[in-house]
User: Which sequence fits this backbone?
């Protein structure tokens, strides 16, 4: 069936059907300068299952077609999506410590697990935490990307709270195409190379598309950029690690009982010394040591890290269709994608005697207090940075996808109906290797009693006793680089972990028309889905047993299934009457029955009103929900060394009478001081690992989203389209794990006994030994803002064709209550460690085409932020807020690309990202690199691309 369209309708539909020109941010494309009445087939737009010729939605949709994506010079889907203005903070390749090679998208900065990712309208495989790794989706297969910036649980089910990303793959392609891409930073590192080949063939009834791609992205070392080569920019050696690359000990004669704690009057091996031998310093009575001084002995761990992590991705994608009859089509697609990625940290900071009682035995051959050297045979606390072996974390992730289904249509009562049934299968298998972690059992044995026998140092069970077979004595007092290979082989091991995420579903949908109303035909869509989600995390047996230097964790395994049914109506009330060129309403509802927490029903209602043909007023109200993911429900217990401040510590500056009384009632001794990994004093990393894990009683999050907007396409300016949308999302029962700081503060300041019950203190010294940290439905999140977008294609001139696009998102409110009863904390405009809350993000581009020549100049804008002042000397506003404030200035990046169509049906492109070498704003609360990983890695990135068509 064919339908007549209007000018505004054509402008939008042209983008979705033809994919000729992207309008960043609005889903509005640039229509032809002279529009005539045309006829178009029905299409389905993200956010609705009803097929319609009218691509104008009551919800804001951003469309990025293949041409627009290629103008950005990027090599991954993640990078494309992370640049859109509605995106927030996500994990990406710049996450080294804490990253795993994956990349996500977080619409409205509400978290990746609250953004639903679809491929061809169907769910993609999720990780155990509920988010989709975009690196499992190769860019070679993409035809366009549609981003619904509104809730859509009534249409798609769980996770569509912040919005929906729908990646549409290539279909009905015929011909062949090969692409070669190469780029690197101006510093000569971070090389990226990509090769892609696509082949399509078909006839009137069938089509097959095959795409093969390989992407190789190299690392950038943190030591190769000034802003990241030290832990805190412009403050070196501040922030350097007290774990010296030369062995360090306490209990050194000046402070024999270690009264001052770790770091108090400690001594360190002198550069070039062996760490053992007679004394040449009368103050210490031990040899070849000197007092530890941070300025010369602390270790700069930052330079050993990756700033941009390496990975390779290899993929094979196939898609086909065959029209069995004129009304019945078999469709199928399949994908295999393999990602190999890596992160690197400085060698492990080993220690013994302070937090784990692994003192160096007084009978160790390497203990300078050994009676062999005239000492008193005392055990000593020690530390040593294993610079001889970096810690390397590698991932091999294999993703499998298969879809097979039947699509058809039929006529009944002079009405056309479309239907489809299908089976969707996704699985991701991940194998991790952790290289450079330490076997703590062997460390314990290695620093135990040892003696020199027959010219060789051996482990013994007691002085003069039996040799312990297989044991290698360890000298933690070795100078930098002095740990022998034999010692390393004994101490280190490689952990092997396995993960899997699996999803399979059966779906059936039907859509069509019911009755004719004054505004047109009432449309409907309905369907059912049965889905099962499962996954596991199987850590190395040594990791699970807690015998490693890294964080231990228990296995995770679980599954749940659900059945769903939905229905949707499109109700055209008026059309072609005064003040109502169109008035249309839409309603939808979805019922979901989960095996683990019960059922839920979520609905939506929207409207579209055109008082005149060139102006559209649109609005939407929608309920949403997010089912808890497998790791939240079934996560095994794991260790976490958390940084926090114990407000019972008497050096806490905010200590008052109420806190003192509550701490005393809990058993705090007089003069109590918190002990941390860095030494005594308030605030620091705990000496003892806290336990975190899942909670099978967690229920779903619930939300309500609202939008109201205008779309204006003035008839007096051909090619100009503007849109302004207000949006609001409120999430109740948000799943959260209370922070250690919140639990401690509410316990000892507010006297909340329920939270006090989560704290376990060591009876011998009152230090906090554990805090129960499990996810719960506690929080409330309330966000609100505006999207403003412009696209304009100027009339053709003798100097070529010019196009302009603007895509902006402004967050006016981002409030979060940790619990429903607590006061809301305001985040908009603030910066937290690796968690920015920009008020305004925007993208603007100017595109030019003249014959075979073309160029695009674009800019990406990030508004300024403020962070709590970590160091008064560097604060821009030390008198503001409770701790003073430091401003992170607004940042704008400029990119350029030029291209030329060669006579032999080829195109060559060259471009520069971050053309003016803009540095990211310096942060003094960001971990490790002094700038947030959402900003570009410093340096110009230059690339070239060649495309050959056959």
Assistant:
């Amino acid at each position: 069936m064919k339908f007549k369209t209007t000018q505004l309708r054509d402008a939008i539909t042209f983008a979705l059907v033809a994919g000729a020109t992207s309008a960043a941010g609005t889903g509005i494309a640039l229509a032809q300068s002279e529009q005539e009445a045309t006829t178009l087939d029905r299409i389905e737009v993200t956010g609705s299952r009803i097929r319609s010729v009218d691509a104008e939605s009551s919800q804001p949709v951003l469309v990025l077609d293949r041409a627009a994506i290629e103008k950005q010079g990027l090599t991954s889907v993640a990078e494309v999506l992370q640049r859109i203005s509605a995106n927030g903070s996500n994990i990406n390749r710049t996450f080294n410590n804490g990253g795993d090679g994956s990349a996500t998208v977080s619409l409205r900065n509400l978290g990746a697990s609250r953004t639903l990712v679809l491929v061809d309208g169907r769910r993609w495989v999720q990780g155990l935490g509920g988010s989709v790794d975009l690196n499992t989706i190769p860019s070679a297969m993409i035809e366009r990307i549609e981003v619904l910036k509104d809730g859509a649980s009534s249409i798609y089910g769980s996770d569509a709270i912040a919005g929906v990303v729908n990646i549409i793959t290539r279909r009905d392609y015929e011909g062949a195409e090969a692409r070669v891409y190469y780029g690197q930073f101006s510093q000569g590192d971070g090389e990226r190379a990509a090769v892609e080949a696509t082949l399509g063939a078909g006839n009137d009834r069938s089509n097959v598309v095959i795409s093969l791609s390989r992407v190789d992205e190299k690392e950038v070392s943190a030591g190769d950029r000034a802003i990241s080569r030290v832990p805190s920019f412009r403050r070196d050696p501040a922030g350097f690690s007290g774990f010296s690359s030369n062995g360090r000990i306490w209990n050194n004669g000046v402070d024999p009982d270690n009264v001052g704690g770790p770091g108090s009057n400690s001594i360190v091996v002198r550069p070039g010394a062996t760490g053992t031998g007679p004394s040449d310093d009368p103050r210490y009575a031990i040899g070849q040591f000197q007092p530890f001084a941070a300025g010369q002995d602390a270790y700069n761990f930052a330079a050993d890290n990756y700033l941009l992590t390496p990975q390779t991705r290899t993929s094979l994608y196939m898609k086909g269709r065959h029209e069995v009859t004129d009304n019945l089509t078999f469709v199928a697609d399949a994908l295999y994608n393999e990602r190999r990625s890596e992160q690197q940290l400085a060698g492990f900071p080993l220690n013994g005697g302070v937090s784990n009682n692994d003192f160096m035995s007084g009978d160790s051959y390497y203990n300078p207090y050994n009676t062999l050297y005239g000492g008193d045979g005392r055990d000593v606390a020690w530390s040593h940075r294993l610079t001889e072996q970096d810690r390397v974390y590698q991932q091999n992730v294999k993703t499998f996808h298969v879809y097979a289904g039947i699509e058809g249509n039929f006529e009944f009562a002079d009405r056309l109906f479309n239907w489809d049934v299908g089976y969707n299968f996704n699985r991701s298998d991940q194998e991790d290797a952790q290289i450079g972690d330490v076997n703590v059992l062997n460390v314990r044995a290695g620093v135990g009693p040892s003696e020199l026998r027959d010219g060789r140092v051996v482990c013994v069970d007691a002085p003069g006793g039996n040799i312990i077979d297989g044991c290698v004595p360890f000298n933690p007092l070795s100078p930098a680089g002095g740990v022998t290979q034999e010692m390393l082989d004994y101490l280190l091991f490689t952990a092997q972990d396995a993960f899997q995420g699996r999803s399979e579903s059966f779906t059936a949908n039907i859509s069509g028309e019911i009755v004719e109303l004054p505004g047109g035909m009432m449309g409907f869509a309905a369907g059912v889905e049965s889905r099962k989600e499962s996954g596991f995390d199987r850590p190395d047996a040594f990791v699970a047993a807690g015998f490693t230097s890294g964080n231990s964790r228990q296995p995770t395994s679980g599954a749940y299934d659900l059945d769903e049914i939905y229905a949707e109506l499109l109700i055209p009330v008026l059309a072609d009457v005064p003040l109502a060129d169109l008035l249309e309403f839409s309603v939808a509802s979805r019922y979901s029955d989960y095996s683990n927490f019960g059922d839920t029903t979520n609905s939506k209602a929207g409207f579209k009103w055109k008082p005149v043909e060139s102006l559209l007023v649109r609005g939407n109200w929608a309920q949403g929900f997010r089912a808890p993911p497998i790791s939240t429900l079934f996560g095994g217990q794991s260790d976490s060394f958390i940084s926090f401040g114990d407000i019972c510590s008497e050096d806490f500056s905010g200590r008052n009478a109420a806190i003192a009384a509550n701490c005393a009632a809990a058993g705090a001794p007089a003069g109590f001081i918190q002990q941390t990994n860095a030494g005594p004093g308030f605030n620091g990393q705990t000496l003892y690992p806290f336990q975190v894990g899942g909670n099978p009683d967690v229920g779903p999050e619930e939300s309500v989203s609202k939008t109201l907007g205008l779309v204006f396409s003035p008839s007096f300016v051909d090619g100009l389209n503007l849109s302004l949308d207000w949006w609001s999302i409120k999430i109740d029962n948000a799943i959260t794990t209370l922070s250690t700081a919140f639990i401690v503060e509410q316990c000892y300041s507010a006297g909340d006994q329920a939270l006090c019950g989560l704290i376990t203190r060591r009876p011998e010294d009152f230090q906090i030994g554990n805090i129960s940290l499990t996810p719960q439905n506690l929080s409330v999140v309330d966000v609100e803002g505006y999207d403003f977008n412009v696209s304009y294609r100027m009339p053709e001139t003798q100097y070529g064709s010019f196009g302009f696009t603007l895509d902006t998102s402004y967050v006016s409110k981002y409030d979060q209550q940790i619990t429903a009863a607590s006061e809301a904390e305001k985040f908009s405009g603030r910066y937290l460690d690796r968690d920015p809350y920009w008020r305004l993000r925007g993208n603007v581009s100017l595109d030019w085409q003249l014959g075979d020549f073309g160029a695009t100049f674009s800019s990406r804008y990030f508004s300024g932020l403020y962070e709590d002042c970590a160091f008064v000397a560097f604060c821009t506003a030390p008198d503001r807020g409770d701790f003073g404030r430091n401003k992170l200035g607004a940042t704008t990046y400029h990119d350029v690309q030029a291209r030329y169509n060669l006579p032999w049906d080829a195109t060559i492109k060259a471009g520069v990202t971050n053309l003016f070498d803009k540095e990211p704003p310096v942060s003094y609360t960001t971990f490790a690199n002094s700038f947030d990983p959402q900003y570009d890695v410093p340096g110009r990135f230059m690339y070239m691309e060649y495309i050959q068509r056959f």
